[in-house]
């Protein structure tokens, strides 16, 4: 090998290493951008559900079901309207629904149907970055969805306190906690045998019904209340109620809600990184 050839090879090596600097530094955001671009394929559905769902649910519950509960819901020494009671729960549920949608089939697509994750990993992008990017994109869809939902809540007069706007953040945190738990599972699925449908039917739907969404958790029989205690949706709903209309509960319990959701999010995020990295490195 001549001296000039060695110099050329070294130049190519330097260029290759230099080309990998940005992906190694910003890879997580590249993956998130990829997902956002992918969402453009169904942006009409995203817009329709983001605006239509709060309108339908709040109208049905605020004008329909609330008429059957004219006395309202006990709230400390007074009462609160049924619409104000149920609205924070619906906000958190909207975040959970989006989280479930974006944490199931997109992983199956990335690993199985259109295995783009393997191609990404062949570039200087790690499994952890792929996990980060997916989760960032999910949060990026939950946040505007809950913001739109909150605006509709305000229009319906379902947010008595100005602190209720913080419910957007607590609902997003609830969605994140659910998202990373589901992602941890779906990232490891190698064959689609209906697991995604089972997550919705036997995971999301029961959680929606038994997390104090439509009635206080204490109204449930004692042997069913544990479902709410372990449900991120119940913790997110209670936080939303504290912020939205000053739901009276001990400060330590409010702290438990926050710690529980943050703890689940961090743990689930780390485990999702591990599952994706392990699968890519097989």
From TrEMBL:
Subcellular location, record wording? Cell membrane; Membrane
> What is the originating organism of this protein?
Glaciihabitans arcticus
Q: Name one GO biological process term.
A: response to antibiotic
Q: Which GO terms describe its cellular component?
A: ATP-binding cassette (ABC) transporter complex
- Molecular function, one GO term: ABC-type transporter activity
Give TM regions. 45-68, 80-100, 138-159, 165-187, 208-231, 251-272
Name of protein: Transport permease protein
Please name the PANTHER family in this protein's record.
NODULATION PROTEIN J
Q: Keyword set for this entry?
A: Antibiotic resistance, Cell membrane, Membrane, Transmembrane, Transmembrane helix, Transport
Reply yes or no: does the keyword Manganese apply: no
> What Pfam families would the database entry show?
ABC2_membrane
Is this entry keyworded Nucleus? no
Membership in a protein family: Belongs to the ABC-2 integral membrane protein family.
């Amino acid at each position: 090998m001549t001296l000039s050839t060695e110099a050329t090879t070294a130049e190519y090596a330097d260029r290759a290493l230099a080309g990998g600097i940005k992906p190694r530094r910003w890879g997580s955001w590249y993956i998130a951008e990829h997902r956002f671009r992918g969402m453009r394929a169904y942006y009409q559905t995203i817009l329709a559900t983001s605006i239509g769902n709060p309108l339908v649910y709040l109208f049905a519950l605020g004008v329909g079901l609330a008429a059957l509960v004219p006395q309202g819901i006990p709230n400390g020494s007074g009462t609160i309207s049924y619409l104000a009671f149920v609205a924070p729960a619906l906000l958190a549920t909207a975040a959970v629904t989006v989280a479930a949608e974006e944490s199931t089939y997109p992983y199956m697509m990335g690993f199985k149907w259109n295995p783009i994750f393997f191609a990404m990993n062949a570039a200087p992008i790690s499994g952890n970055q792929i996990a980060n990017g997916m989760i960032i994109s999910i949060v990026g869809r939950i946040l505007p969805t809950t913001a739109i939902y909150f605006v509709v809540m305000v229009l319906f007069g379902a947010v008595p306190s100005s602190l209720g706007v913080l419910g957007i953040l607590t609902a997003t945190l609830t969605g994140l906690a659910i998202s990373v738990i589901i992602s941890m599972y779906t990232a490891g699925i190698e064959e689609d045998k209906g697991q995604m449908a089972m997550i919705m039917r036997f995971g999301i739907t029961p959680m929606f019904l038994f997390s104090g969404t439509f009635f206080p958790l204490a109204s449930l029989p004692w042997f069913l209340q544990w479902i709410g205690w372990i449900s991120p949706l119940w913790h997110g709903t209670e936080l939303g109620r504290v912020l939205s209309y000053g739901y009276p509960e001990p400060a330590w319990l409010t702290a438990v809600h926050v710690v529980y959701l943050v703890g689940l999010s961090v743990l689930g995020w780390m485990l999702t990184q591990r599952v994706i990295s392990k699968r890519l490195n097989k």
